[in-house]
Amino acid sequence: MMTVILHNGNSVRDHHPRKGIPMKIEGSVALVTGASSGIGEATAKRLAMSGYKVYGTSRRGAQAGRRSFEMLPLDVTSDESVEAVVKEVLRLDGRIDLLVNNAGFSVAPAGAEESSMEQARSIFDTNFFGIVRMTRAVVPHMRHQGAGRIINIGSILGFLPRPYNALYAATKHAIEGYSESLDHELRTRGIRVLVIEPGYTKTQFDANLLEADSKLDEYREVRAALGKQLKEALAAADEPGVVADVVLEAATAARPKLRYTAGGGAGRLRLLRRFAPAGVVDAGIRKELQLDALTAALPRTPALAR
């Protein structure tokens, strides 16, 4: 049951949000994965401040320090762990109105061939299949409620490529396709599935990067240069609160959009991708990352040297 607050201050209780009525959900239950730091923590705090009963999750569960939300242990790569955390929230509050899928990681800049198949499976298991597991566990309860909202934290790399971060970009592209398809499936059941597309964000993202597990000397200079670029970009990036604000907007919108960019840079890149010729986007990516300059001095294969 949700409280719909009308412009005149009156409220009604209804299982289904009515189209076009601005609303604020008071006392609803939100579950936020990857909430120990960064975007997840900022989102959990913002939702709690706005009236949600929030449960955050991390692999370690509750940690030292006071929070405005409760932390629960969760490993999104484990079916049993996902089932357990959903059961616990339902035991405590009897419902889940909002699921924010934020848990994820990336591999430090490296050639795509420098990650083993095991590493490739690992990043997909967390970034993409973790979302699938959480969604499958929560959707039946939202269907029973007749309402709910699922917000997946994607990235600008869900609509743009990122050379030397191919696996991470692939997981974010997968999230885009899954979310849009699922939104069509569930919309008539009172459930919406939305994607947030942040650009660079000041988090512990770079500190938590995994190194490629099959490094090749051919990519050594490129890895170093792009790693430096990434650190510089993150130092000048948006604060996590920028993304948290957009999550709250998407969570409470009466007529939510499928996709929300977070931050001015992300919005400009979305427009560029949509309206600019493919050749312009392609050239812009190579120029921004200095790809041709980085690889110009590298040894060329016999086939390319001819």
Q: What is the fold named in CATH at topology level?
A: Rossmann fold
What is the domain tally? Answer: 1
Tally of helical segments: 11
Order of helices and strands: EEEHEEHEHHEHEHHEHHHH
Q: Which strand order spans the largest sheet, edge to edge or round the barrel?
A: 5-4-3-6-7-8-9
Q: What would you give as the CATH superfamily?
A: NAD(P)-binding Rossmann-like Domain
- In whole angstroms, the N-to-C terminal distance is 69 Å
Regarding CATH, which class? Answer: Alpha Beta
Characterization of the model:
The chain is of the alpha/beta class and 306 residues long. It has a single domain, classed as 3-Layer(aba) Sandwich (Rossmann fold). 45% of the residues lie in helices and 14% in strands. It has eleven helices and nine strands. The strands form two sheets. Strands 5-4-3-6-7-8-9 form a seven-stranded parallel beta sheet, with helices on both faces. Strands 1-2 form a two-stranded antiparallel sheet. β7, α5 and β8 form a beta-alpha-beta unit. α1 crosses α7 and α2 packs parallel to α4. It is globular.
Task: Describe the protein's topology.
Blueprint: E1 2-5, E2 11-14, E3 29-32, H1 38-49, E4 53-58, E5 70-73, H2 79-93, E6 98-101, H3 117-127, H4 129-145, E7 148-153, H5 166-186, E8 191-198, H6 220-235, H7 240-252, E9 259-262, H8 264-275, H9 278-288, H10 291-296, H11 302-305
Helix pairs in contact: 1-7, 2-4, 3-5
